[in-house]
Amino acid sequence: MNSEIFGVIFMFMATVVLAIPFGKYIAKVYAGDKTILDPVFNPIEKFFFRVSGINGTKEMNWKQSMVALLTINLVWFLLAMLILLNQGWLPLNPDHNPSQTPDLAFNTAVSFLVNCNLQDYSGETGATYFSQLFCFMFLHFVSAATGMAAAAILFNAMRERTTDQLGNFYNYFIKSLTRILLPLSVVVAIIFMLNGMPMTFEGKDTIQTMQGDTVQVSRGPVAAMIPIKHLGTNGGGWFGANSAHPFENPNYLTNMVEMIAQFLIPLAMVFALGFYLKRKKLAWMIFGVMTTGFLCLVIPNMIMEQHGNPEIARMGIDMGSGAMEGKEIRFGTPASAYWSILTTVISTGSVNSMHDSFMPLSGMNQLLAMMVNAFYGGCGVGILNFYIFIIIAVFISGLMVGRTPEFLGKKIEAREMKIAVMVTLLSALLIKGGTALACYLFHRDPSLPWLNNTGFHGFTEMLYQFTSCNANNGSGFEGLGDNTPFWNISTAFVLILGRYLPIIGPIAIAGILANKKYIPESAGTLKTDTLTFGIMIFAVIIILTALSYFPALALGPIAEYFSM
Amino acid sequence: MAKRQKKVPLFERSLVNDAFRQSFAKLDPRIMFHNPVMFTVEIGTFVMAVVTAYTLLASSTSQGSPGYNLTITFILFLTVLFANFAEAIAEARGKAQADSLRKTREETPAKKIFPLGDLYVNEIKIVSSSELEKGDVFICETGDIIPSDGEIIEGIATIDESAITGESAPVIREAGGDKSSVTGGTKVLSDKIKVQVTTQPGESFLDKMIALVEGASRQKTPNEIALTILLAGFTLIFIIVCVTLKFYADYANTPITIAAFVSLFVCLIPTTIGGLLSAIGIAGMDRALRANVITKSGKAVETAGDLDTILLDKTGTITIGNRKATKFHAATGIHEDDFIKACALSSLADETPEGKSIVELAGKDVAKSLSLKDAVLIKFSAETRTSGVSLPDGKQIRKGAYDAIKKISDKEGNIFPAETEKIVRDISSNGGTPLVVSENGKVTGVIELQDIIKTGIRERFDRLRKMGVKTVMVTGDNPLTAKYIAEKAGVDDFIAEAKPEDKMNYIRQEQHAGKLVAMMGDGTNDAPALAQADVGVAMNSGTQAAKEAGNMVDLDNDPTKLIEIVEIGKQLLMTRGTLTTFSIANDVAKYFAIVPALFIVSIPVLQSLNIMHLHSPESAILSAIIFNALIIPALIPLALKGVAYKPIGASALLRRNLFIYGLGGILVPFLGIKLIDLVVAIFI
Q: Which pLDDT value is given to residue B1?
């Protein structure tokens, strides 16, 4: 077998093999069982709780948890704005980069806060070491932990009992940091440093090239930030070129580690759900649906990219190693194609190749991955997004077996449906509405300096930007001139709405359901851990989400594909 | 259990005419507003009418030809009309069914008692039944039709309820106790009763049911509301799809006509289920009524589909109400053969199942050798509670309950043999019923009657078990007998030596564990349990209190009806689910019909998406909306009859329905739209 393809299969299998025991570990952490890291972190946590005056053991209902979540998020936002607007004179700025403009700072602060990392700036010139570490890296950790804590509340709410007490948000949050994210980051950072990733506080280095030119090379404490960038499915890189940059992703090994790292927690969360609820079959069903969706996107991409670009081939250029435009030689086509879908199905948004240069239908698959945003999905939030689809699928198929719908022993009624429908509507509105607004503005004034490509591809760039923001993904179809007030501000709002409502919605549903009477299973109850139900969820996802973008995709990547 | 089969053709001419008129009346936006999906289609129709007018008046052809626009307007209008028709025909059928039941009890003469009459106190005058008000008292004698629902306050009578229940065997109703209720339209066969009217004219259960069906007081059930929210959500999503598409098209310099936008929108929103949703709900109540069950709310039918536990009375449900003779116990000193002969003799002319069973047990030879010439038959009466025969030679054979015969025996001054008394006790404790026989007031022995489990009941319980419904037998028998019968009948649990409060406690206990419970009852002491149960079915013969407490009334007084009710509920929910699935699955084909049609003119490369090879953009759009409109009437029969329920387990059921309605829902429109396109292409 082609060794490049083998590398991809190996990466996938390795992640699954790692994710199962890790999921078991996560389930233990959230269940409050003893873990080996307790002796190290318990005293530290106690100290934090004492200093902050927060009671980490008080049970909260879903509303209290969400208030806590939004409150600490607001504090971080203000902190991030403060740093970005003043980074120019703050310490750790050896390259003397300026402070960010208010609209850029707003966009940047929001996009890191919501685990998106859109990055309308370039790390080398737009940020300082101080902002990279204390704003970006900090938010990498806490935004990931926010999503995971929300997922932990969901897990708790899905248990077989009737209560409104769903654990303590702060406890889940801090446990996510100390028991999961921090230790893993340390391990990954060591691997990166051994592979030559820079870890220095010195400013730009000056080197002389072979031609004798002098070149300034940016660097910094990169190895500290890159592990959590992936583990927390953040994706906001140190350098503008993200993981295509040699310092951010030096070789094939680091490439593999980065891919496994970003994939690990979203996957492990699925298994954690199974271990936590003692419903392993349910977890495998969810894993099956997600993996089917993932494979439907990634396999065509790898094939299309390997085939290369027919237009370039027509020019007589060899396409033997696939469509290499925008890709790194050291990673090759299959690994780049695999990464492009991985980073979009989960909401990382880091790139090791330029999505703008992919084949049109590969670009479409990247878009679809983000539009669905629940084939694995982001750190913690992926399972929340999937939960909405479960609720809708349960509702329809519950009726089909002749009972009013119920999920894990709880009846799904009008209120839950209302919330599920609103969350689904929201993503449709944000992506489609945002793109429509951009189209409208551009149509009115085609002289706007946004699009480096016009026509179908330009449309895809705009669609991609809003899709990426709504999914809190953060990758871009570069080529869009997005550091303008319109894009900075409009996308920031999409980011906020696309982050918090899809967290609050599922938690609210789960919270309401948790408080309902538990109905024991009978022979007439719809089983949700079966292949049939998996097919049902998959169909709901495809018909409700993916297909509703069909008209838009027809005008973008599909039209571009048929024009080639 | 002779059930009246009421087969009404799905589309009876008179009903169709009525429904047709109603479907126009329902176009009123104030009514349409309650159905968000179809309301948007009505708005779309209106928009298209304006566009058609515009294309007629303006010379511009940018919006397509007037004829094309008019056609689309017309098809959209038909879509709305079809949906209204579905609802109207369901209403009409339900109403017709209820009306036919109501007719039996209208305009019968009533012998009303006026406490202060023109001439006397308690004067009896004949008035029309429609003039009877709640609280009035009337009398009925042999041969009278009872003019109104009521409760017997004096007397006892045998009543023929076949007009309502279809059951030919007369029943006994008497003042006081649980059998005091009479139904309007039934006939008094013997004796005389004084009845107090219990319902105001126009407020009987049937009247309430008709109001429910007609929509005046019909409220959406919780599940219907949740489904409507989901469907409204889909509708909003497709509004977003269509509105934003306008801006994308502007960017791509692709003009799209209003007709195309409206068509795309109408095709994508779930019009099929949106149009049929209320018809499905009404049809559920109607099916219940056809099974002779009056439901007091649509919610009750829905809940029936969810039931986890049902409480069934042993007698009449699990066992044949009338027990069968299984053994003769002659008293000491009485020759066995003589005793058997006497028993057979007293039962020869007895038409009751018990009587027949006694003759059967005695054997053909014995029966043949006996003669009833010149004998006087003593029929069972509610007063004496015995029956028998008086022979020409003066011999009086009587059989009856222990205490009734004891009374006769005591009257004659005979001592009731202690040994016979023991047999009586033994039989009772083994779940049997002792029938004591006396000859001229002297006890000669006991006939043992035993419960006979109904044939086929075990299969029905198996069926329920596969549906996930637990069956509980309620009986006054001792635990040993109860256990024996429970095991034999295949019920999951039993309550022995049940007192009314035991039922109540059992229901509470099950509900506490999160289960939905149904029970059937008739007595006043059942009323609290009927009210507590999630589905409480009161027998029509039961007391007014029981009927008020339950949320369904069974006109047949048939305890096995609960099983049917569960299936009706499940059918209702399944029909909703499958048609929703079908409706949404249809979108796949519709996208592939319309989306290429929208863009082909300005972006010819997108012709490749026209996988159905539809003739032209116009024909593609027309075919899609024609299919969309026609599928509604095509599915009306399914909506009215309901999807067949098969107790094959939830997963298998989902697989089956997903295959038929999901996969079918994806494939059928591809075929349908292509076929319609072939026809439409001829005209374009």
A: 34
| ipTM topping 0.90 | yes
Sheet (strand B396-400) strand order: B324-330, B442-450, B433-439, B396-400, B386-390, B376-378
CB atoms inside a 10 Å sphere around CB B58: 11
Q: At what angle do helices A222-231 and A138-157 cross, to 10 degrees?
A: 20
Contact A397, A502 (CB under 8 A): no
Identify the helix (H) or strand (E) that includes residue B355.
helix B353-362
3-state class of B535 per DSSP?
Answer: strand
Instruction: Determine whether the interchain pair B245/A551 forms a contact, defined as Cβ–Cβ distance below 8 Å.
Output: yes
> Whose CA is closest to B112, among B136, B130, B133, B141?
B136
Could B658 and A543 be called an inter-chain contact, meaning their C-beta atoms sit closer than 8 Å?
no
Q: Is B313 among the catalytic positions?
A: yes
Q: Compare all CA atoms of chain A with the CA of B299 and give the residue at the minimum distance.
A: A404
3-state DSSP assignment of residue B429 = helix
**Would the CB atoms of B250 and A435 count as touching at under 8 Å?**
no
- How many residues in chain A? 564
Residue pLDDT, tens place only, A195-217? 999 999 988 888 888 888 898 88
Query: CA B502 to CA A199: how far, in whole Å?
Result: 76
Residues of A in contact with B267 (CB under 8 A): none
Which whole number is the average pLDDT over A74-88? 95
User: In terms of Cα–Cα distance, which of B257, B272, B259, B264 is closest to B240?
Assistant: B264
- Residues B619, B621, B627, B633: is their CA dihedral positive or negative? negative
The series of mean pLDDT values per 10 residues for chain B, 684 residues long, is 50 85 90 90 95 86 86 95 93 80 68 78 79 84 82 84 65 77 80 84 68 66 89 93 93 90 93 92 85 83 87 77 80 85 82 79 80 78 77 84 84 84 80 82 86 80 84 81 82 84 87 86 78 87 78 80 86 93 93 91 88 92 95 94 85 92 95 95 86
CB-based contacts of A315: which residues, under 8 Å, 6+ apart? none
Provide φ and ψ at B77, rounded to 5°.
-60, -40
Q: Are strands A214-217 and A205-208 parallel, antiparallel or unpaired?
A: antiparallel
Q: Report the DSSP beta bridge partners of residue B494.
A: B473
- In chain B, DSSP finds a helix count (H) and a strand count (E) of 24, 21
d(CA A356, CA A339): 14
pLDDT in tens, A225-259: 999 999 999 988 899 889 999 999 999 999 999 99
The CA-based angle A108-A111-A113, given to 5 degrees, is: 105
Element (H, E) at B434: strand B433-439
Mean pLDDT of A494-501: 94
Q: What distances in angstroms separate CA A97 from CA A87, A91, A110, A119, A241, one per listed residue? A: 8, 11, 21, 16, 18
Residue B5: predicted pLDDT: 43
Spatial distance between the Cα atoms of A351 and A442, rounded to a whole number of angstroms: 27
Chain A nearest C-alpha distance from B385 (Å): 46
Residues B160, B313, B558, B677: which is the catalytic one? B313
Contacts 24+ apart (CB under 8 A), A236-241: A236/A111, A236/A112, A236/A117, A236/A119, A236/A136, A236/A140, A236/A349, A236/A350, A236/A474, A237/A117, A237/A119, A237/A123, A237/A350, A238/A123, A238/A132, A239/A122, A239/A123, A239/A124, A240/A119, A240/A121, A240/A122, A240/A123, A240/A124
**Phi, psi at B155, each rounded to 5°:** 100, 175
